[in-house]
Amino acid sequence: MKPSRISRVVQLLTTLQAGKSYAVSDLAKIFGMSRRTIFRDLRELQTIGVPYHYNTKTGGYTMDPEFFLPPIDLNLQEALSLLLLVHKGRNQIQLPFKNSALLAALKIENNLPAKIRQYCNTALRNISTRAGAQAPIRHPGGLDKTFVQLEKAIAQKRKVNIRYHSFFESKIIELTLSAYHLLYNQRAWYVLGLSSLHKSVRTFKFNRIKEVEILDKCFIEGDDFDLYEYLGRAWSMIPEGRIYNIKLRFLPKVADNVTEVQWHSTQKVTHNSDGSATMEFRVDGLGEIIWWILGYGDQVQVLTPKVLRNRVVEMAKNMVKLNEPG
């Protein structure tokens, strides 16, 4: 089944679970579908083993409301992990519909056995998380509205007009976007798609989007879009079209700290006898990784390539010049 049909069949299942009797004509009105589509979806339910019944007296279909969605039965670890995710983890990244997630968690929590609920409440009081820096959504409607509009456009393959504050072009630009994919990366949400202005697939940051308008125009491309193929070996999310073999030496003070993290899929680490560590990467582009390198200041040495070393030296000199006492 296609995603849209799956959603429709699940809605049909949920409706029948209410325990009432629905005629095909009633279901057709509820979902805005033809009788033929309703019969096809009913056959789909039958195929996957859902025991609905036709009541000859009422002329409608019904099913046992206890089927398929039984009362919640979570063990201690399952309950704690779910509540931990919602109560403590929802602020770690900018998840849309945070209030809805919290309400859903409260419904589940209220139906837990008393001992499990009490244990989870006590445990959660002794657990804290700290979110990293994030890019806030400042325009009206916030994250939820932007997310809903773009997700809807992707699902329905409809083009959108967006007004966007482009840092690269230092101005507000307007374009038509065929949106392919939504991505949360490090501190912010992004939408990737074919830009009418740039004539290529581009990435747009949510918090720089000023306005979104869903159009009646549809697009047909994008079914074969592969996020990981598009990102390739970029350090983060901006491929530049050229692969560099990068070799860095981190001094003993930071060597253990930096090497315990998997920064890139191509990462190779060699621990040296003097306590330093050599890290190697095959990265598409230098623009992103150079800022990461500069973050380690005088504790990292660029061994190769020469072009990267020269750029780091140039930026370091500019930093000294900028910060010298006047």
User: What percent of residues are in strands?
Assistant: 15-25%
**Proportion of helical residues:** 25-40%
Straight-line distance between termini: 69 Å
CATH class identity of the largest domain: Mainly Beta
Q: Count of helices?
A: 11
**What's the number of structural domains?**
4
For the report, how would you describe the main beta sheet? 5 strands, antiparallel
What are the low-pLDDT stretches, counting only 5+ consecutive residues below 50?
none
How many strand units? Answer: 11
Strands side by side in the biggest sheet: 6-5-4-3-7
What does this structure look like?
This protein has 326 residues and is α+β, with helices and mostly antiparallel strands. It folds into 4 domains: 3-63, Winged helix-like DNA-binding domain superfamily/Winged helix DNA-binding domain (Arc Repressor Mutant, subunit A), CATH 1.10.10.10; 81-125, no CATH class; 142-231, SH3 type barrels (Roll), CATH 2.30.30.520; 243-323, no CATH class. Helix content is 38%, strand content 25%. It is built from 11 helices and 11 strands. The chain has helices spanning 3-16, 24-31, 35-47, 76-87, 98-110, 114-125, 142-156, 227-231, 252-259, 289-294, 306-323, and strands at residues 52-55, 60-63, 158-166, 171-185, 188-195, 200-205, 209-218, 243-250, 268-271, 277-284, 300-304. The protein has a 5-stranded antiparallel β-sheet. It has a 4-stranded antiparallel β-sheet with strand order 9-10-8-11. A hairpin with a 5-residue loop joins strand 9 (268-271) and strand 10 (277-284). Helix 2 (24-31) packs across helix 3 (35-47), helix 4 (76-87) runs antiparallel to helix 5 and helix 4 (76-87) packs across helix 6 (114-125). The longest helix is centred in the C-terminal third of the chain and has 18 residues, at 306-323. It is extended. The model has no long low-confidence stretch (mean pLDDT 87).
